[in-house]
Amino acid sequence: MDRGNRGITIRGNSAQIAFTYQGVRCRETLPIPPTKTAQKELALKLQSIKYEIKIGTFDYLKHFPFSKKAKELRKTRPDRYTIGEGLKSWLQRNQSRFQTSTLQDYNSAIYHHLIPAFGEITIAELTANMIKEWLNNLPRSNKRKSNVLTPLRQMYDEMYHDEIIDKNPLERVKNLPTQSREPKPFTQEEVTKILNELTGQEKNLIQFAFWSGLRTSELIALRWQDVDLEQNRIFVKTACVRGQLKETKTKSGKREVTLQPQAREALLNQQTYTEKLNDTVFHDPRTNNSWKDDQPIRKNVWTPALKKAGIEYRNPYQTRHTFASTLLSRGENPLWVAQQMGHKDWGQIIKIYGQWIPPSR
Fold first, then answer.
1. In this structure, are residues 113 and 73 in contact, taking their beta carbons and an 8 Å threshold?
2. Where are the alpha helices (DSSP H) in 197-317?
3. How many structural domains comprise the chain?
């Protein structure tokens, strides 16, 4: 029941005080002993709150740090809201927009890198120099460093556009330069040596990789229903990233690829193993299941084959470079090669593989 002080309601061992802040009627419950002294102190507290609101110094968080409204107001206080809280809230709000693989990357960046480094710092405290110093000491590639910063960039950008902060320190932190994947294609002699060290499904997989130009994620997602041997073609529609099937990254990535004779041969040899399963074309012979990602291929198939063949290690992506350089060297139209590779235009082909394009006659 109300004990006479306007804005204060006593209920047993607690009291509710009410006041208007920023045009909103606010009510907060506090535990107090049932004594007149406690009630007088509460009346003084309410009087102090109203005075602070009047002169513009009221700090909701200071008076009621555990209230739901205070927690909501923290988000508008960059001097109180921590980067850790902000990143968790940003990820929760936006997670439905992301592909599974992207969400996994952001979770890793936030919980393994950003929160350990900046989680306890308030939004307002972060400076461009702090980020640069941290990046300088982070033992990761420049590309990975840029990827790690992405959730932090997006969170600060969102807060800036919502006018919660009036400056964004990330605007003064440029992404670090990355080295492009310099093509180091294999010679046909090296290709033969590598394939000679492989048998069965493993040989079929690598032979097809060399002669189709598909990315590893596209190779392991290729299904028999997307293979058209009668018309000598395949349809690249999906990619498998970390065990998750998804559509190709770009519109141009969804494409029709003409089968080179060696790629066709690999598919014909693979039919014995998996065609009747009506599933993905290439399976891991150790598990008799589809490949989940490129790691077991790299570890169990690719690296041992190169070692046995006595060939210097290059990553599996070089099979794609080998495909492109081989077609271009024999005079195929760069625009057609670009389409086979899933590039948006042939400018990328010229940029990456220009040295393999014969001069026009």
1. no
2. 200-212, 216-219, 261-274, 295-297, 303-309
3. 3
